[in-house]
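Need C-alpha cells for this chain, all 144 residues.
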Amino acid sequence: MFGFLKKKKPANDLDNVTYHLQMMGYDLLPYGVSVAQVELSSGYNAIETASHIAFTTMALDVKEIGDDVMALAAFMPHAKALLELLKEYKDKKLMNPTQWDNDARAIYHIVTVDEHQLEWIDKILSDPIAGKARLAKSRIDYEF
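Here are the C-alpha cells for all 144 residues:
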C-alpha cells in the first residue's frame, strides 16, 4: 500500500523525521527541527517523532479553524490516511505499539467533533515544548 516505505531513506535521524513527516502530509518548520532533535535525543525514533509532530500540528490546525463543522470535516480524510500510515509503520515494527495506540487515540480525538475535542486539543497543545509554537505546516489543501 505504501510503496515509499521501500525507498531508500535519508542517512540521519533528523532527515528521517523530515522524510516521514512529508509522507504524513507536513513540512517541518525551524522550531519543529528543534523539537525533533529533543525528541530524538530522548529516545524516540524518527517515525515516532514525526508522528508526534504531525498530530500536534493537526491539533493546532483544528484549533485555529474553530467551530466551523464543514471546515473541520475537511480534516477527516487526512486523519484517516495518517492513521493508516501509522498502522503500517506499527505493523512493520517501525513504531512502538504503545506509541501507535497513544498517537492514534490523539488523532481520532483531534478530528472527532464532540464535547471532548477541545479538551484533547488543549491537552496536546499544553506540552511546554511541542505546544509552544508551530512545528510544521500542512502540505494538504483542506479546501475549506
